[in-house]
Every structure is written in structure tokens, then in C-alpha cells.
Amino acid sequence: MSTTPLRVALIGTAFMGRAHSQAWRVAPRMFELPRDVEMSVIVGRDAGRTEAAARQQGWHEAATDWKQVVERDDIDVVDICTPGDSHEEIALAALAAGKHVLCEKPLANTVAEAERMADAARDAATRGVLAMCGFSYRRTPAVALMQRIVAQGRLGDIRHVRAQYLQDWISDPDAPLTWRLDKEKAGSGALGDIGAHIIDSAQWISASLITAVSAQLRTFVTSRPVQGESVGLGGRGASGAERGPVTVDDAAVFTADFDNGALGVFEATRMALGRKNANRIELNGSKASIAFDFERMNELEYFSADDETGLQGFRRIQVTEPEHPYLEAWWPAGHGLGYEHAFVHEVVDLVRAIDAGSEIHPTFDDAAQVQRVLAAVETSAGDESRLTKVEKK
Ligand code: SOE
């Protein structure tokens, strides 16, 4: 255990920058951590916005040049919250400079980038430097509990994995063309943005890897206003604004084979009106079933075939008790948590792993595996021969 604080640089000031800032601020206040955390510097492209973010979020300094920041001797951890097109460059520079790295998901925009990052992370690990990818939902207590229950073997042989991630923030065809709709910046659309989360959860919870997919991608709205007012992730285009092409998928569906013999069905869309953040996963095994829906994030549904006949049924486990993952540090039993807490738990686990010199998951290798699934989905969706036409009579 070291007595020197961990000095953190965070790159990115938008949604994820705010979520991670909050996590760095709160983690040492709610959890017993082996190291103090110093929120040293936040980095953004726009000096004014970055200074405002530093003031509001509690960073000591604001900076605009990430290259200079990752080289600084007084930085130990680099937290990457930028769009996917800059992840590789920043992560490689930070790892080469000996900094621990937390990188937002998806790890990269292509398999080649992700694999180079995974190689660099493996190499850095030999020097005691850690790298972690921010698949935050793993650390939502109910999801962590689900993984624990499955790891205890309570489901028996896993037969089905059913995962959906449904949002609706681009349902309006006049919502503006933001970076998440630009392939250059984001890599892909619903597939990489939210499909990556359920691929990661499914592989982690089932302790099994996807080995093959059959997929379809669809872009329902192919052009959008280039200017507009952002509201949350979506918003409304300015009236009469020029329209530019949407270069990513709006929705992705695929079936999957897992290496434990399970069959998977996946759906990711940001156009399911009324579904706000329905990140759902259900596993059916030979002995039990278990299901989670982020819209009811403090609950799990569990069915056991061992329960007395006549009293069988899905039971609702309220995941708010001190014996559940992460919860003993929070509120008295029965009081739930929110979206932001998973990011706090990420920081808690990362700080503890850095101090202990132990591995931290998801590793860049785990995240590169997700990236290979994303690429396989795109390849499959681009191959018309996988479709059998239904004749009209
Ligand atoms: C947008 O779809 C988004 O913010 C994702 O980028 C996040 O990863 C997810 O947690 C919530 O939705």
C-alpha cells in the first residue's frame, strides 16, 4: 500500500467526462480506498468549456493539450472519455508513458486498433501498469450479482442468452447529426454504442465467448440536420438546416453462438420509442433463469426449478442489501442506487487494483474480443447471402 495519492488526468468534458468526474470525486468519499485520489487535470479541446468543467467538477487544473498531459511526471492515471476515434492514440501514448489507463467503451473503432491497444496493455502489465475498459454496467450491483449467481453454477447449463439494449433518443428524424451518428468518430451506431455493452455483459455473465453471429443492421433515417439544439443525447435540428448523411446503423439485431453451446439473441437500437435505457439481459439454464432490466436497475428476476412445485415462479430480488456487490458502502438496506454509481464502482475497483498490483477487468483483451464481435456483426450484415428470401404468393 502506497501513501502517495493517485493523480488523475481525465480527457473529455462531455457526458462521459461528467460521469467519470463524478466517480473520481465520490469514490474516495464513500468507499475506504487504499490510496487518496487527486483530481489533477481535466483536458478538453475548448479552453473556456474545459475551465468551466474543471470548476464545476472539482479538477485542480484545466488543459487543452492531452499529449503534454499524458507525459507529465505528476500524473499516474489517464482516463479517456473522448469519442472512439482518439482512444488508440491517447491510450498508447499514456501506456508508453507508464500511466494506468481507464478507457471508455467501445475500446476502439476497429479491431486493428483494439488489438494494438490490447497488445500495448499486455506489455504495460509486465511493468505493473493497468489498463481497463469502461463497460460500466458490469458494476451496476444487480448485474454484478447476476454474474456472481451464474458463476456459482445455479443456472446449470446455459441454453439461452437474450440481450437487448433499447433507447429512443434518435427516433425523431430531425434530431441533429451528432458525433454518435458519424462512423469516422464513433466506429458504428447503436451497434458499438450500446450493443457493445450487452455483448460485454453477455460474455462476462455467461463466462463464455461468442464464436459466430448472423446479423442485420438498419439505418432508418439516412440524413439529419447538421445544426440544431442538443437536448440530452438527441435534440432538434435547426429549422431549414442543411442535412448531412448518417453513416452508422440506427439498429442492430443478431443471433449468436457461444462457446458453451448457448444460443444468443441480441438487439440494439436507439429508435425504440418509449424505451429510454432498457439495457436488458436474460439467461435461461437447465436449473434456473435470471433476468435484468436497467429500467428497474435495483432488481433481478430469478426463477429456480428447485423451488417447490406449485410455488414456482420468478422471484424479484431487491438488490439493495449490504450483502450485494458494492452496496455496503452506500445507504441503509432497501435504498437503491442510480446510473452514476457504476462509474464510482469502476474507480473503486481500479484504485484498489492499482494499489494491490492485481489485474482489473474488463481488460483491453476482453474489450478487443467485444470489438471482434462488433466487426463480425458488420461483416455478417453486409453479406446478403445469409438471407433466405421469402417468396410472395
Ligand atoms: C448513448 O447511447 C449512451 O450514452 C451510451 O454511449 C452509454 O454507453 C450508455 O451508458 C448510455 O447511453
From TrEMBL:
<keyword id="KW-0560">Oxidoreductase</keyword>
<dbReference type="Pfam" id="PF01408">
    <property type="entry name" value="GFO_IDH_MocA"/>
</dbReference>
<dbReference type="InterPro" id="IPR050463">
    <property type="entry name" value="Gfo/Idh/MocA_oxidrdct_glycsds"/>
</dbReference>
<dbReference type="InterPro" id="IPR055170">
    <property type="entry name" value="GFO_IDH_MocA-like_dom"/>
</dbReference>
<keyword id="KW-0520">NAD</keyword>
<protein>
    <submittedName>
        <fullName>Oxidoreductase</fullName>
    </submittedName>
</protein>
<dbReference type="InterPro" id="IPR000683">
    <property type="entry name" value="Gfo/Idh/MocA-like_OxRdtase_N"/>
</dbReference>
<feature type="domain" description="Gfo/Idh/MocA-like oxidoreductase N-terminal">
    <location>
        <begin position="6"/>
        <end position="124"/>
    </location>
</feature>
<dbReference type="InterPro" id="IPR036291">
    <property type="entry name" value="NAD(P)-bd_dom_sf"/>
</dbReference>
<dbReference type="Pfam" id="PF22725">
    <property type="entry name" value="GFO_IDH_MocA_C3"/>
</dbReference>
<feature type="domain" description="GFO/IDH/MocA-like oxidoreductase">
    <location>
        <begin position="145"/>
        <end position="290"/>
    </location>
</feature>
